[in-house]
TrEMBL record, chain A:
The gene is thiG. This is Thiazole synthase. The lineage of its organism: Bacteria, Pseudomonadati, Pseudomonadota, Gammaproteobacteria, Alteromonadales. Belongs to the ThiG family. Catalyzes the rearrangement of 1-deoxy-D-xylulose 5-phosphate (DXP) to produce the thiazole phosphate moiety of thiamine. Sulfur is provided by the thiocarboxylate moiety of the carrier protein ThiS. In vitro, sulfur can be provided by H(2)S. Its main location: cytoplasm.
TrEMBL record, chain B:
It comes from the Bacteria. InterPro entries: Beta-grasp_dom_sf, Mopterin_synth/thiamin_S_b, Thi_S, ThiS/MoaD-like. This is Sulfur carrier protein ThiS. CDD domains: Ubl_ThiS. It holds the Pfam family ThiS.
Length: 266, 65
């Protein structure tokens, strides 16, 4: 949701940072913590899995996340059916004490594409149950329209398949979603690999980006987190500043009037 | 009674409440529970009655993207 204060919102929660950061795949818990801090993100994504007694139920991880003092965004990663996603969302709401849910429903194992049909079904059930749904979806304008009509105030279309780091594969489609839904908070989720990809998303007018691997799997995750912070700020300012008109022909920037050593011919 | 916890078959000597079974299994807070794929809220943990063959899932926070 665009406004003049530089903030954006998720279901009424005002946010300054435009980076949502994942908590997985870091080389160590300390690196995760330092990276999240360096990113200045206000939202951290987490998940739920079967408790492992040998890891004391993941208590250490949860305490570490709580100590960061960030908003928690639980996901339904890995769910393949509406029932699985709804159950996991309900369990997440109880354990994390939040109505936010990053709704993920795998439609195909090949590219882990969100299932557009089941996503709509699960979204409707969860919205009716009081959840504030952040749907991870494809960059399909019509699916996005249906999600908005169901009541989603946030959309999270993919930039590229998750974990690929390929960047924004279809800027045109992403731009169309931005233009079609000016009042909806838009987050590019998945596929981002470089700070420049995040900059591009913000330049397109997206409100934020959600990423994990691009930071966690960098050679220096903490430095990369800082790089993303700067890149996102640059992209947002670039969007607000308004780009120059694009042209098909060259136009010199240096004045041609008064050019020395020029001899008129003919 | 035979049940399944987190995919592991368990034999119970007698009928127990859901929370008793989960605590005896060694579950550590925080956790959320589901039986046969259905969420069971905290308010039901003490009174929920298990049946033969029920599958319990004990879920806890993990890293996520």
């Amino acid at each position: 949701m665009k406004n003049n204060t530089g903030t954006w919102s998720i279901y009424g929660t005002e946010l300054e940072s435009r980076l949502l950061i994942g908590s997985a795949l870091y080389p160590s818990p300390a690196t995760m913590q330092d990276s999240i801090e360096a990113s200045k993100a206000e939202i951290v994504t987490v998940s739920l899995r079967r408790q492992s007694p040998e890891q004391a139920g993941g208590q250490a991880f949860w305490q570490q996340i709580q100590a960061l003092g960030k908003h928690i965004l639980p996901n339904t990663a890995g769910c393949h059916s509406v029932q699985e996603a709804v159950t996991l969302a309900q369990m997440s709401r109880e354990i994390f004490d939040t109505n936010w849910i990053k709704l993920e429903l795998v439609g195909d194992e090949y590219n882990l594409q969100p299932d557009p049909i089941d996503l709509l079904k699960a979204t409707e059930i969860l919205l009716n149950d009081g959840f504030q749904v952040l749907p991870y979806c494809t960059d399909d304008l019509v699916i996005c329209r249906h999600l908005v009509e169901l009541g989603c105030q946030v959309l999270m279309p993919w930039g590229a398949p998750i974990g690929t780091g390929k960047g924004l594969l279809n800027p045109y489609a992403l731009s169309a979603i931005r233009n079609r839904f000016p009042e909806i908070s838009l987050v590019v989720d998945a596929g981002i690999g470089l700070p420049s990809h995040a900059t591009q998303a913000l330049e397109l007018g997206y409100d934020a980006v959600l990423l994990n691997s691009a930071i966690a799997q960098a050679q220096d995750p903490v430095m990369m987190a800082s790089a993303f912070k700067c890149a996102i700020e640059a992209g947002r300012q670039g969007y607000l500043a308004g780009r120059m008109p694009e042209k098909d022909t060259a136009n010199p920037s240096t004045p041609t009037l008064g050019m020395p050593f020029w001899h008129q011919t003919g | 009674m035979n049940i399944i916890i987190n995919g592991q078959p368990i034999e119970l000597p007698q009928t127990q409440s859901l929370i008793q079974v989960v605590e005896n299994f060694g579950a550590v807070k925080p956790f959320a529970l589901a039986v046969n794929g259905q969420f069971i809220p905290k308010s039901q943990h003490l009174v929920y009655e298990l049946n033969e063959g029920d599958a319990i899932d004990i879920l806890s926070p993990v890293q996520g993207g």
